[in-house]
Amino acid sequence: LERSYEVAVAPALDLSAVTRAQGEQGLLGLAFSPDGAFIYVDYTDRDGNTHVVEYAMNGDTADPDSARELLEVNQPYPNHNGGKLLFGADGYLYLSTGDGGSGGDPGNRAQTRTSLLGKVLRLDGESGAATYAIPPDNPYVGRTDAREEIWALGLRNPWRMAFDRATNELYIADVGQNNVEEVNIQ
Fold first, then answer.
1. Could you give the CA distance from residue 180 to residue 34 in angstroms, rounded to a whole number?
2. What's the CA gap between 159 and 115, in Å, rounded?
3. With left for phi above 0 and alpha for psi between -120 and 50, is residue 26 left, alpha or beta?
């Protein structure tokens, strides 16, 4: 089966003024809301920090004036930014963040529950809140020793994720260090 695709002359969304595509930085991920009314993007800005921003869709184009920032995460190094975005069958937005970079996670950010780095986060971006709401069944809801956004922790650079349609399990591809790569199932 052959398919041909045409590339639009004008981009659906131009982030070149706010991003710097270099190394492991730039536009890292995108996902459409389940109803297709919004596009969510994960990118690093010119200072290397992560932003997750929602834009309203107008046909095949994102409305740049509709930008609503859900989240900003400061990155200590230019690598290990994660960046995958996807919606689960539960309607929530899942996003991956790397451990913030360098080798061996020198700040132990992936294991630190008060850091958003080295995690999979689960947010309710369509709650009507100014930024996002926390799903009430997230694992750390109500705890003062952890960020309530955290869905999974202890990851180095989870750059890809996918849900198994039959089981709804989340598969997380995590970049290893030196000689080990891993796929985590949650």
1. 35
2. 18
3. left
Q: Give tens-digit pLDDT for 129-168.
A: 889 999 999 999 999 999 999 999 999 999 999 999 999 9
Name the nearest CA neighbour of 121 among 156, 148, 91, 159: 148
Distance between CA atoms of residues 148 and 20, nearest Å: 30
Nearest to 89 by CA among 21, 162, 18, 14: 162
Yes or no: say if 40 and 87 are a contact pair by the CB < 8 Å rule. Answer: no
How far apart, in whole angstroms, are the C-alpha atoms of residue 25 and residue 78?
7
Question: Poorest-confidence range of 4-13, 73-82, 130-139?
Answer: 4-13
**DSSP designation for 124:** B
pTM as predicted: 0.92
Pairing of strands 158-163, 170-174: antiparallel
Is-contact 140 153, C-beta < 8 A? Answer: no
Q: Given a cut of 80, is residue 173 above it in pLDDT?
A: yes
Q: What is the per-residue pLDDT for 179?
A: 81
Cα separation of 51 and 88, whole Å?
Answer: 20
